Fold:
Amino acid sequence: MRRHRTVQSTSRPATVSVGVGLVSRETPSVESALERAREACEVAKHRGRDQTQISLGEDDSRLARELETNWAERLREAIAQDRLVFYVQPIVPIAALSQNMAASMLEPSWSPNEAMARTQFFELLVRLRDPRGDLISPSVFIPLAERFGLMPEIDLWIVARALRHLGALSRNGVLSSFAVNLSSQTLSDVDTLRRIEELVREGHAAPGQLVFELTETSQLSRLNDVRRVMLALRALGCRFALDDFGTGFSSFTHLRHLPVDFVKIDGSFVEGMVSTELDHKLVSSITGMARALKLRVIAEHVDGPATLAALRGCGVEFAQGHFLGKPRPLEKTHFARLLAVG
Structure:
């Protein structure tokens, strides 16, 4: 949930992480529930921005079992019933944008504008539709899926349908690329990774149209295994991006050992680079290092023309953010009709 607040006459984006302490008949006291909520909030903040964490104490074991059983069943049903919904957000080549581009040219419409007309690279995002038709944010259901070990199943579903959609677009003359996130659970699941490799080999789309994003802050405990799988997929033509670069202690370890093609600079640095000299220097340094390693650079959370101009000056090649296009349901994009006839 992104909001803007004004600090010393400067508008800065703010994000919210939520910690929840459940209260039941077994909860010993109000103080206990508040302490659980505080601890959950700390966990949510450490996991990244816009996160939700639910804390269940030992005294609430019955409630915990009921909640877990309910949500595990809901998630499995959603996967089985294809109730995961794709959203897309453009990743725009900065060189394709005029230097005097105004915000009015970019929003609110995704009908032909300079950014969309020249963009065929999108991050593929996912929402969950409940049986009533309401959409559930990934900040809610992804932590639960991780808790129940369901992320490999969800990632497999996403990759299979992403390849199918890319194939349909290709058959209709549109050569697009989708960036797809892979969770740390999936990267540690040999069987799921093998199945993903099989899906790529089946040939629904050119492997080069798929860019797998690895979150830099995730714990890649089996680094050598992950590297072997990445090399196998890269041999087929797939590409990889290291997401949230700069936010974790293992940034340079991952960059050194993993065969990535893109570096995505964490949005917290990008958002502050216009008003903060340190953030500007960090973005410039990361870009210079990445380009020296022959990697391409994507900047996240681009929020206005001044940020876009600063990124251009640093040599960043791609930009992503609400200024260039908010996430939109795939079914409501300009190429949705092609998917239906593909």
Summary: The first strand starts at residue 2 and ends at 7. Confidence is low (pLDDT under 50) at residues 102-118.
